[in-house]
Amino acid sequence: MNFNSLLRVKEGKREDYWVSFSDLMSGLMVIFLFIAVTYMNSITKGKEKIEQIAIMWNQTQENLYQDLFEEFKADLPKWKASINSETISIRFEEPSVFFDPGSANLTRGFKDILDDFFPRYLDTLSKYTDNIAEVRIEGHTSSEWIGAKSDLEAYFRNMELSQNRTRSVLQYCLTLPAIARQRDWAIKTITANGLSSSSPIIASSGEENFSLSRRVEFRVRTDAERRIVTILEGIN
After folding, report:
1. Which helix (H) or strand (E) holds 175?
2. Which of 25, 143, 190, 197 could serve as 135's disulfide partner, Cβ 3.0–4.6 Å?
3. Can you give the pTM of this predicted structure?
């Protein structure tokens, strides 16, 4: 075999090699494109599902607010209470009527309000249990504490007071005979949260409204967040 023949043989092998390598790269590119398209489809479907959840919760929020408002609109003024349509919270705004001064003891007047309010509240929520992750009883205080040596001491004293008050409210509500049918769901879903002065009410002047800062709220938290996290985990 002369040199030229040998060279042609080697070039032929080299050509076969590059053809095989080219086929391999083409195959990998097809696989990569398939993965990319699949991933993009997953993201698109995930986005669509998140949008559906947002639309669904928007509608659920509006319906729940309307149901709560219709149920309690005649009682809110006499209870010194209000309903927030954005947070779906019912706020009781007169702690001097609801608790003994500086204590977590419920007044007879507040017990009478809870006797009327809480069973009707659970009845209204019962249509939305599949969409509710938590019902929070939140206790808020002003930033004041007479005799406190520092703002931090006032904060922690108010924290203890707000926690004790929300526990008192929760304990009283859960022992009402009128909610016996819904007690199991209530125990699993309703929590007591003492927040001290972390969310004060600020007046238009920019100063704290100490009276309105002292309040108890019943706030609904939906499971929309959990559903969105599940979707995102599925995409990843």
Report:
1. none
2. 190
3. 0.72
